[in-house]
Amino acid sequence: MKDKLTEQSIKLFVKKGFSETSIQDIVDELGVTKGTFYYYFTSKEELLMNIHLGYINDMLTQQERILNDESKNCKQKLFDIVFMLISNIKTQGPAAKIFFREMRNLSEERLSVIIPKRDQFRFNMEKLVREGIEKGEFRSDLNPSIVTFGILGIANWSYQWFNPAGEVSDWEVTEVFVEMILKGVQID
């Protein structure tokens, strides 16, 4: 039931927003009582935190698996991370929208848990860009921090417009993005 409450909440938060969705809205959609909700969550904010943690922890786990694959060079790891972000829209798109849009509804205490995890994803990516520069796979005149923000901006904004059931596949979107990125960072 906890998973059902979370899934239904994600749908409602995407549709109506966190602030405009009540606990009553959530339980009404599932035909359960508020008592059921409070059995699993102490508050709507705790539920939001659960959604945030589930999303960012999953992204970090997948990213670390890619980064730790010693059989791949930096260019391939970059491709794999961008593909991971785009392909996850199929399953994580609504949670990603909530992650980026509703973070402002978390208390300072909860943000102090989420923000370092979000930043770790970025730092891991920046480390990959730096490594690519050091290994001569990427241009040496680049600012790794700005390049990283650019890559993550491109990939993360896709949650707003990319339709996994549309005409262009997640693989094709990734190929376009990475080609665009690498043309700007690759040594000729």
Using the 3D structure, state the CATH architecture of the largest domain: Orthogonal Bundle
H and E string:
HHHHHHHHH
Low-confidence stretches are none
Total separate domains: 2
Give the total of beta strands: 0
Helix/strand/pairing class, anyone?
Answer: mainly alpha
Please outline the major beta sheet.
none
Query: What's the overall average pLDDT, rounded?
Result: 93
CATH-defined fold name of the largest domain: Tetracycline Repressor, domain 2
In one word, what is the shape?
elongated
The amount of beta strand, in percent, is under 5%
CATH class of the largest domain: Mainly Alpha
Helix content percent band: over 70%
By DSSP (H or I, 4+ residues per run), the number of helices equals 9
Name given to the CATH homologous superfamily of the largest domain? Tetracycline Repressor, domain 2
Radius of gyration: 19 Å
Report the end-to-end length measured between terminal Cα atoms. Answer: 55 Å
